[in-house]
């Protein structure tokens, strides 16, 4: 026990200084590992490294900094937690979350890191400014509001050696009851394998590259000033389409916000005329 507690003390002091240890645990029981996690929670942190956890309860916690690395969590409960900063997947190997519950979670500015979410529940969440470029999501359910969130169908190039893959698994997810505001699916997310919201505030463009070329042709007769204003909007979607994202799912706020509201409304209606049911 003395050896384990010494490791805890050293690890805590180093984490507090901003350094994540290469190995927190050199031995000890599962109970000692749980105490380390709990003490981290009491100091506004949750730090887990190379843990294999089942049915752990972190619900309702105020987490100032989340640092989970190279761990496996099964049926763990993060419901109604509020997380201000950190990552679900630190280290050089992916952390796996299976059948975990994140219902009612409030998340702002947290990175996904190297993480895999399988059959997880994200009901009634509020996720703001979330980056999940190197994450996999399979058979997860989302309700609530996602705002300023990125999902990638392929990991960033400099992460490929660590992850050992060039594609992110991203399928079977249900977003149909969620609000997706400024949410982007990029680099090859197959939208046909997701359930998406059906409200009129969204557009689903199939073969977006072809659609955007047609849109460019149709607005050539509009004033030069208007074309320049709309160029930045269209350029973003053209870039997404040219980097592997065949189909696009767009919220109206991304098109209608900005100068020349009437021209933007016309652009939205043009896009809608070429969209497909979703």
What is the CATH third-level topology name of the largest domain?
A: Pectate Lyase C-like
How many separate structural domains? Answer: 2
Low-confidence runs (pLDDT<50, min 5 residues)?
A: 1-42
Average of pLDDT: 86
Q: Major sheet: size, sense and barrel closure?
A: 6 strands, parallel
Tally the helices: what do you get?
A: 7
CATH class of the largest domain: Mainly Beta
| C-alpha end-to-end distance | 58 Å
Strand percent estimate:
25-35%
Q: Provide the helix percentage.
A: 25-40%
* Gross morphology: elongated
Protein name: Pentapeptide repeat-containing protein
Describe the structure.
- This is Pentapeptide repeat-containing protein.
- This protein is α/β, with parallel strands linked by helices and 278 residues long.
- The protein folds into two domains: 44-197, Pectate Lyase C-like, CATH 2.160.20; 198-278.
- The chain is 29% helix and 31% strand.
- It contains seven helices and 17 strands.
- Helix 4 runs antiparallel to helix 5.
- It is elongated, with a radius of gyration of 22 Å.
- It starts with a helix and ends with a helix.
- Residues 1-42 have low confidence and may be disordered.
